[in-house]
Design brief:
The complex is a heterodimer. Chain A is mainly α. Helices cover 74% and strands 0% of the residues of chain A. Chain A is built from 13 helices and no strands. Classes of the chains: A mainly alpha, B alpha+beta.
């Protein structure tokens, strides 16, 4: 019942987001058909605006958009005039989701153990090393990591391809470049979570009952310690699944992240609104999953 | 209880593995195509492949392989040579062309290409419903502009008619020296009527897509590739040099360079895909090629604002620009510094020199205008499109005007669309601009500074200039036409100076000349796909 209410509440929220995106992108100076070459006659621009109903009042355009939305149609891209927004999403999203999903696994696969062992060895050298590496991963941005990885593993060692999206080998470098930052974040959150869980009363109680240290850490502390990571994982996954402008450009990956940024630079109104909605939908959905995961992991949490 | 927990723990890696496996399984997007004979790296994802919609060079370079007009471009010179039309006659008054189509023309799907297909294609380009941004390329045809603007609704009044299945008569408004070049321009390409009528706006996605050119479109994946297969029914298929071509859309120069270096691509043919940090080193390599290009970078003055309404001020600022310094220190690809707007190598034209670098004369002129040593001169700003190279040029200009004239300029870097809109609304003092010729003729450069031209963007109006440009347009004699254009250019870049030319663009591409044949340097930076050939190593050894 609680989740049903949350889902129903998402509908007006999405409407508000679409209306905001719709209005804001139209407020930016310049339009989708502004080019360096002004067409030979003002009529040409008028035809263009008429073709895409941009000559109508904004509220009418919005109603037209909602009508399309009701039929599952986001409209036509104004920059890529042969493609609908649905087409851009259908072609780009699976690619971004594949890469994002892999990066998500990479981030958890590296971040959780590093954070866990850092906390377990608090104050000793594995803790400092883990902390240092996690800090490094968080601080160095993707546009530095990616060229470095390319230079070492693709150009110098020639182990991996420099770019493109063709075989599983092509996935390795972009996955690492995309996931490293998140791995660092996860490690830091995991370490903090572990430290506070180990000081909590139920752990002290378990310890006083004579439970072994390993069992204590893995079985009892871990479930509670991982909660901050779980709450972070929702928005992180939404971020990863919608692609990265930098990584997709550097590795020439045909994902959706490139469109997410370029569409607003191009004033490609339908694409901006369509992708904003997609992102919002993912974010809302994943927050729901996070909240559900809480009830599974922490018996103290219950929603009414 | 304890068992259950252990199971949970042991299953964690297994679940993790399953998740990874599932993602791999879902990734149907990793497709492995058979390798192409030739792989080219193009700039950015094509906005469209519809000849009558496209506006950019990246698109035109692909579409040139898929469709053809009455004329096509010579790969060496980029001048118009017969394409779908075998020959033509021009009437003595220079206003009526009669084109004779080849009689063996067919679409890649087998149906004949007839004169009425040409009429259909041109009317489609002019039709308001098509919303073609380049419809202006057909305004030279009688009633073309009127039909596009809706003043005439009967397409039969437009000056293009099929006399029979293979003969076409085109009536022009006035003699147009570059009309044959326009006949090789994408907006005037011949497109398949039946497919367009059947599929509407989505016609380019139809498979098989009928082509009138040397290649057929077999695959187009966004931000991934455009795949072209040789069209065996093309009239000149015997001279198409490659079977299967991949065109990859790249945005990052370093990525393009890496992929090229790893041998995954054969040609990178856009100047913007040369990593600028490595420019000095790369341009010395034998596989990097630079050549003159039909484009000019120049400054615009907003003459509707004081003090730039005074031509002495404009000329003084122009004479204080050390162009050599800019091309040697900043652009560094061997761009020629220039004082004229029309680039060298333009057909039937020799550019006239404008204002040379002369700081002393510039100071004197500025003093005459009432600003000795820059005293009393208001602060002003210079609009630039905010990419690094433009900002660097802006900083140089700032220093030159301060050192030579004692003037304080502020740099105003803007995002592309904002920059365009600001320049268009004359909301600037000085703007760093450029222009690439739409066709190989002085008209495309000089025509835009006539009063009220949509691309003028300076507020400059000069009736003498307008008269000269119009007179040149009507002049059928090429030598007399050149003279008139030269008078106009002198007025523009030397006497009144609403603009100050700085340098000409060069084209840059990279490919191994031992491996790749059929790509030549020309001022349009146009390289028809039909001529390009990769020599496979086996053949190289023989």
């Amino acid at each position: 019942m609680y989740y049903l209410r949350r889902i129903l509440f998402a509908i007006p929220l999405l409407l508000v987001i679409s209306a905001l995106a719709f209005a804001l992108v139209r407020l930016a100076p310049g339009g989708p058909f502004d080019r360096q070459r002004v067409p030979a006659s003002p009529e040409i621009e008028r035809h263009l605006l008429a073709e895409y109903h941009l000559d109508e009042p904004v509220w009418k355009q919005y109603l037209r958009f909602l009508d399309g939305l009701a039929h599952g149609d986001f409209g036509t891209s104004l920059k890529y005039r042969n493609h609908s927004v649905n087409d851009l999403i259908a072609q780009g999203l699976p690619v971004s989701m594949t890469l994002g999903g892999l990066a998500f696994c990479f981030a958890l696969g590296i971040g959780l153990p590093v954070g866990f062992f850092s906390a377990a060895n608090r104050g000793r050298w594995p803790d400092y090393l883990g902390g240092f590496l996690a800090m490094l991963a968080v601080c160095v941005p993707g546009f530095v990591i990616a060229p470095l990885l390319i230079m070492i593993f693709a150009v110098k060692l020639q182990w991996l391809p420099v770019a493109l999206w063709e075989s599983p080998l092509h996935l390795i470098l972009p996955t690492i470049a995309l996931g490293l930052y998140f791995a660092g974040q996860v490690a830091r959150l995991m370490r903090e979570g572990m430290l506070s869980a180990m000081q909590s009363e139920f752990v002290t109680a378990a310890r006083s009952k004579g439970l072994g240290e390993n069992e204590l850490l893995f079985k009892h502390a871990f479930r509670i310690a991982v909660l901050p990571v779980v709450s972070y994982a929702g928005p992180m996954l939404a971020d990863l699944l919608t692609g990265s402008f930098v990584i997709e450009n550097i590795f020439q990956i045909p994902g959706i992240g490139v469109f997410l940024v370029n569409s607003s630079l191009n004033r490609d109104y339908p694409v901006v609104v369509g992708l904003s909605l997609l992102y919002a939908l993912l974010l809302i959905g994943l927050y729901l999953v996070v909240d559900f995961a809480y009830t599974v992991l922490d018996p103290r949490v219950k929603y009414e | 209880m304890s068992n259950c927990k252990r199971a949970w723990r042991f299953h964690l890696p297994a679940r993790f593995f399953l998740l990874v496996a599932a993602i791999f399984w879902l990734s149907g997007c990793l497709r492995h195509d058979p390798p192409a004979d030739l792989t080219l790296i193009n700039k950015g994802e094509p906005e469209s492949l519809d000849p009558q919609i496209i506006t950019g060079q990246a698109e035109m370079r692909i579409v040139e392989g898929m469709f053809e007009g009455l004329m096509r471009l010579d790969p060496k010179t980029a001048r118009a040579i017969p394409g779908l039309a075998e020959r033509y006659e021009l009437s003595p008054d220079g206003k009526t062309y009669t084109f004779h189509l080849r009689t063996n023309l067919v679409w890649s799907t087998g149906e004949p290409i007839l004169a009425e297909d040409v009429v259909y294609s041109w009317i489609r380009a002019l039709s308001p419903a098509t919303a073609s941004e380049y419809a202006g390329q057909l305004y030279y045809i009688k009633n073309g502009e009127e039909f596009n603007n809706g003043k005439i609704t009967d397409p039969r009044l437009v000056g293009v008619h099929a006399l029979d299945a293979h003969t076409l008569r085109v009536e022009l408004k006035q003699p147009t020296a570059f009309f044959l070049d326009l006949c090789a321009f994408p907006t005037l390409y011949v497109v398949p009527r039946r497919t367009i009528e059947k599929y509407g706006d989505a016609w380019i996605m139809a498979r098989p897509l009928p082509s009138s050119g040397p290649f057929e479109l077999v695959d187009w994946r966004l931000n991934d590739k455009v795949r072209l297969l040789k069209n065996p029914r093309y009239w000149d298929a015997a001279n198409t040099k490659s079977e299967l071509i991949d065109v990859l859309p790249f945005n990052f120069p370093s990525t393009a360079f890496n992929v090229y270096e790893q041998g995954r691509a054969d040609i990178v043919w856009d100047k913007e895909l040369v990593p600028s940090e490595l420019l000095d080193v790369l341009l010395r390599r034998p596989d990097f090629h630079t050549f003159n290009y039909l484009g000019t970078v120049f400054l615009r003055f907003n003459v509707t604002r004081k003090p730039f309404d005074d031509e002495r001020v404009r000329r003084a600022l122009g004479m204080a620009v050390d162009r050599e310094r800019i091309v040697k220190k900043i652009t560094k690809s061997g761009e020629p510094a220039t004082t004229s707007l029309v680039p060298p190598g333009t057909a039937n034209y020799h550019p006239v020199p404008g204002l040379e670098y002369n700081p002393a004369a510039a100071r004197k002129l500025l003093a005459e205008a009432g600003y000795p040593g820059g005293k009393g001169f208001p602060r002003f700003d210079a609009l630039v499109y905010g990419i690094k190279m433009n900002e660097d040029i802006g900083v140089e200009l700032q220093q030159m005007w301060l050192d030579n004239l004692g003037l304080n300029m502020e740099l105003r870097p803007l995002e592309w669309k904002v920059y365009l809109s600001t320049e268009n609304h004359l909301d600037y003092d000085i703007s760093l601009s450029d222009w690439i010729g739409d066709y190989n003729d002085a008209q495309t450069f000089l025509g835009m500074f006539t009063s009220g031209d949509g691309n003028n963007h300076t507020g400059w109006k000069n009736s003498g200039y307008d008269t000269l440009i119009n007179a040149a347009g009507e002049q059928p004699d090429l030598a007399a036409r050149e003279k008139t254009f030269q008078q106009a250019e002198t007025l523009l870049v030397h006497e009144s100076a609403p603009i100050v030319p700085i340098y000409n663009y060069v084209g840059v591409n990279y490919y191994d000349p031992k491996r790749i044949r059929g790509i030549y340097a020309n001022v349009l930076d146009d390289h028809p796909l039909r001529a390009i050939q990769k020599i496979v190593p086996a053949a190289l050894n023989k």
